[in-house]
Amino acid sequence: MRVLIVEDNRRLAESIRDILKHWYDCDICGDGNTGYFLLTDGGYDAAVLDLMLPGMDGITLLKKARKSGCSVPVLILTARSEIDDRVLGLESGADYYLTKPFDMQELLAVMKTILRRRGEVIPECLSLGNISLNQADYTLSGPEKSIRLGKKEYDLLRILFVNRDMVVSKETLLSKIWGSDGEAVDNNVEIYISFLRKKLEFLKADVVIVTIRRLGYRIMEKNGGGGRE
């Protein structure tokens, strides 16, 4: 599922993305005009919206989006905590109103709630073949035993699981997992793919991560074909 974060404070937006990225694919937008365009035409499943935005404020953005027929669930996340602001936000079409500073667990719970209202179900475990990935505690389980993944191992494997029908490029993995981190170097992906392959072998998984030459990586069951570089 895809979540749009409309927030002009880049550091805060990246913090929100870091909290949500274990469950959702997140994009960041820093101004109201672009936020309106993406919210109405970007194919997102939910949005986190600040109110004080350059270009178009959050309330105007939300009212305009709802008037155009956009039904994407929206969480307003703002420093404005007065009752009048809350009422205005909800009456303008927000599904929930949360004030800053916020608690990480509450943010996650709210996102699950507004998506559940829309009919989306967030699975606790992602499964393929004889293995499953628990999104709550980063545990990867095979037919006989389990192993706890590191954070980046989990992030990488989750992306492959969610996009199992697609080839995911190395550039996409590098961007989504390491972002602008100073540790983001080209061979990071290869190193972590190697770690994950060894753990899949340890668990006697009937699932493999294959390398599609010059394109990227894909996870599939062993009888699905494919190969490594």
UniProtKB/TrEMBL annotation:
Modified residues (4-aspartylphosphate): 50
Record keywords, A-Z: DNA-binding, Phosphoprotein, Transcription, Transcription regulation, Two-component regulatory system
Pfam families: Response_reg (PF00072), Trans_reg_C (PF00486)
CDD domains for the chain: trans_reg_C
Domain of life: Bacteria
DNA-binding residues (ranges): 123-221
The Response regulatory domain, residue ranges: 2-115
Domain OmpR/PhoB-type positions: 123-221
Described purpose of this protein according to its UniProt entry: May play the central regulatory role in sporulation. It may be an element of the effector pathway responsible for the activation of sporulation genes in response to nutritional stress. Spo0A may act in concert with spo0H (a sigma factor) to control the expression of some genes that are critical to the sporulation process.
This protein's name: Stage 0 sporulation protein A homolog
Protein source organism: Hungatella hominis
